[in-house]
Amino acid sequence: MPAECRNFRDPIEPILYLDATYAIATLDETEAYHSDCANFYERLESESVLSVVSDLVYNELAFHRIKAAMTIEGIRTNQHWLDVKRNRPNFIATIMPDVESKKAELNCMVLKLSIGDAVTERAFQLMRNYSLLPTDAYHIAIALDAGVNCFVTLDRDFWRVDGIIVYTCLP
């Protein structure tokens, strides 16, 4: 049986794991589902929902911001974004204030879960059972290890996992 999928108008569970796709869309005004995600976060706050993340969300948010800035610079200089990284090794330092600003915003929104010893085995089991990519499996394993089985995500792969609840604004 796949995950129980809910939309952003459905009743909300008391604790939700905010996946990186949702966190990025909430914090980045250029993302396609920014308005839906930001409005849902306001609802989470107004209903006193405990929102949690893991270090993986911080990693993916930072990478998203860095890659976006390098892509813009690459377009400006007619380079691939990875060439910007290779040719300008100090470029990341110039955009760290933006990355740290988004980290601070996320810090104000969530509680960070620690990663327990059983997470790796559970993540590999999720990869085997549901054909998940490693990062998705780790997000789910970290949350489940902490007793959280409700997720907010824009990633349809989560929908395949038995025994979890997924909130999304995707059609």
The CATH topology name reads: Rossmann fold
Q: List segments where confidence is low: pLDDT < 50 over at least 5 consecutive residues.
A: none
According to CATH, the homologous superfamily is 5'-nuclease
Structural class: alpha/beta
Q: Helical residue percent? A: 40-55%
Order of neighbouring strands in the sheet with most strands: 1-6-5-2-3-4
CATH architecture, by name, is: 3-Layer(aba) Sandwich
Shape: globular
Largest sheet: 6 strands, parallel
The Rg value, from CA coordinates, equals: 17 Å
Give the beta-strand count. 6
Q: What count of domains describes the coordinates? A: 1
User: With helices defined by DSSP (H or I, 4 residues minimum), what is the helix count?
Assistant: 7
**Helix-strand topology string:** EEHHEHHHEHHEE
Overall pLDDT score: 97
Q: Distance between termini?
A: 20 Å
Share of residues in strands: 5-15%
Describe the model.
- By secondary structure, the chain is of the alpha/beta class.
- The protein has a single domain (4-55, 100-167), classed as Rossmann fold (3-Layer(aba) Sandwich), CATH 3.40.50.
- The protein is 55% helix and 11% strand.
- The chain contains seven helices and six strands.
- A six-stranded parallel beta sheet has the order 1-6-5-2-3-4, with helices on both faces.
- The two termini are 20 Å apart.
- The model has no long low-confidence stretch (mean pLDDT 97).
Concise account of the structure shown:
This protein is an alpha/beta fold. The protein has 7 helices and 6 strands, in the order E-E-H-H-E-H-H-H-E-H-H-E-E. It has one domain: 3-Layer(aba) Sandwich (Rossmann fold).
